């Protein structure tokens, strides 16, 4: 009598796969270029849209938090449908490996506060790109974009935020 095979509802295994990684394009907002830094000098706090990372059909918006004419931090706003989940160690290690393959540091440098005029003059979001890293990861032709958050952690695609300890 033939041996019966038992069906499982879950399984986990390793499988070698080609992973393609790239950095999505950062598009600076046209309005950002036309803001007069002198008008922000007396504002207690205002958020200014800097631009967005493109590549996942959603676009992660980056804003500068400005206090009294100084950019004090950057803020990344993922799509409205995004929800938080606990980070999977294998996805975190994939992101670290992808960042290394693209020649970036293990973690992005911390943002240093500066005047809005200086921030605006850095050209094409250079500071934003250095402090917020986005990586497009493609496996079997399906791609997701993962971006680092200024306070630590990542969010991936247009649906998932990965909280890292």
Overview of this protein structure:
This protein has one domain. The chain is built from 5 helices and 11 strands; from the N terminus they run ββααββββαβααββββ. The strands form 2 sheets. The protein has a 6-stranded mixed sheet, covered by helices on one side. A 5-stranded antiparallel sheet has the order 2-3-4-5-7. Strand 10 and strand 11 form a beta hairpin.
Brief descriptors of the model:
alpha+beta; six-stranded mixed sheet; 35% strand
Task: Describe the secondary-structure layout.
Blueprint: E1 19-22, E2 26-28, H1 30-33, H2 37-40, E3 46-53, E4 60-67, E5 70-77, E6 83-86, H3 89-101, E7 114-115, H4 116-121, H5 126-131, E8 134-139, E9 142-148, E10 154-156, E11 160-163
Parallel strand pairs: 6-11
Antiparallel strand pairs: 1-8, 2-3, 3-4, 4-5, 5-7, 8-9, 9-10, 10-11
Give a quick account of the main beta sheet: strands, pairing sense, barrel closure. Answer: 6 strands, mixed
Which sequence of strands runs across the widest sheet? 1-8-9-10-11-6
How much helical structure, as a percent, in the residues?
A: 10-25%
Q: If helices are DSSP runs of H or I spanning 4 or more residues, what is the number of helices? A: 5
Q: Poorly predicted ranges (pLDDT <50, ≥5 residues)?
A: none
What is the overall pLDDT average? 77
How many domain modules? 1
Question: What is the percentage of strand-forming residues?
Answer: 25-35%
Task: Please tally the β strands and state the result.
Answer: 11
Rounded to the nearest angstrom, the radius of gyration is 20 Å
Order of helices and strands: EEHHEEEEHEHHEEEE
């Amino acid at each position: 009598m033939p041996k019966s095979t038992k069906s499982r509802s879950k399984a986990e295994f390793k499988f070698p796969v080609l992973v393609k990684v790239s950095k999505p394009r950062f598009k600076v907002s046209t309005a950002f270029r036309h803001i007069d830094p002198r008008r922000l000098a007396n504002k207690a706090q205002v958020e200014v849209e800097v631009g967005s990372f493109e590549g996942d059909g959603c676009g992660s918006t980056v804003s500068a938090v400005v206090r009294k004419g100084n950019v004090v931090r950057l803020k990344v706003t993922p799509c409205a449908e995004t929800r938080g989940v606990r980070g999977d160690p294998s996805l975190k290690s994939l992101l670290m490996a992808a960042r290394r393959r693209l020649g970036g540091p293990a973690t992005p440098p911390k943002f240093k506060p500066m005047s809005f005029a200086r921030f605006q003059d850095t050209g094409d979001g250079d500071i934003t790109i250095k402090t917020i890293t986005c990586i497009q990861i493609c496996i079997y032709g399906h791609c997701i974009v993962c971006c680092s958050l200024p306070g630590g952690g990542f969010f991936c695609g247009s649906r998932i935020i990965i909280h890292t300890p």
